[in-house]
Amino acid sequence: MDEAPIPQAESISQERVSLRILPIVLGVAFLLATLFTAWTPAGLFSGSLSDKVAVMLTSQPDEAAVAQSTAYPQLRVGIVSGHWGYDVGAVCYDGNGEVTLTEAELNLRIATLVQQKLTQAGYLVDLLQEFDPRLDGYTAVALVSIHNDSCEYIDENATGFKVAAAMDTRDTNRASRLTTCLRDRYERTTHLKFHPGSITSDMREYHAFAEIHDTTIAAIIETGFMNLDRTILTQHPDLIAEGIVQGIECFINNEGVQPTPVPTFSE
Fold this sequence. Notes:
Helix content: 40-55%
Largest sheet: 5 strands, mixed
Number of helices: 9
CATH topology of the largest domain: Aminopeptidase
Low-confidence stretches: 35-61, 64-71, 261-267
CATH architecture of the largest domain: 3-Layer(aba) Sandwich
CATH class of the largest domain: Alpha Beta
Structural class: alpha/beta
Order of helices and strands: HHHEEEHEEEHHHEHH
Shape: globular
Distance between the termini: 125 Å
Oligomer: single chain
Strand content: 5-15%
Strand order of the largest sheet: 4-1-5-7-6
């Protein structure tokens, strides 16, 4: 008895199903072939098949990116906000004897901006209080303590900034370089003048210098006088912070600086 012929529509439908299944079959076959190729006898005892599949299906980290991140670790920088957490420091009063500005709040405003700028530049930055416990044995590529001078009117020459490093630092060359970089970049950025005549022994014997690790190069900067320099200090703290940041980066990157006169110290 002759078989009934398959309707043409049913034949076309079966062909379409076959075409759809074929890529799936080929894909499974390829995956199985890959697994059996990778699953060598030597690896038979090092992990299960499911472990090997998981490894093969998990995206692996970029080796170049990993090498770069480990080859260039972030450098640590310490920023001390003068008087923060201890006392108010120098104080400004209005005509009625009311406090209008304290050195501690001004220092913290500038120090916070310095921290933000250095962090954005890729450094690890610690914002430290005046007598921060972390200063004991503190290790960093550089540490800078930020302060400001008196709000009392002294004379017309009481304007500008000053920078000093520890008197007994182990590496005088690097300490000198840090202070030179800070002087050069800060003056260029803010256009305030260096005021070496008012650098005192209190600055050169700043307590943190004796607390930090002896490999940490440190300096203290008084960014201005809170009387005659008050406008730039309070209205343009971003500019003040930028001058400090550029000085620190000058030191870290071993950038060139213009020769500066040797300061004379007063007690």
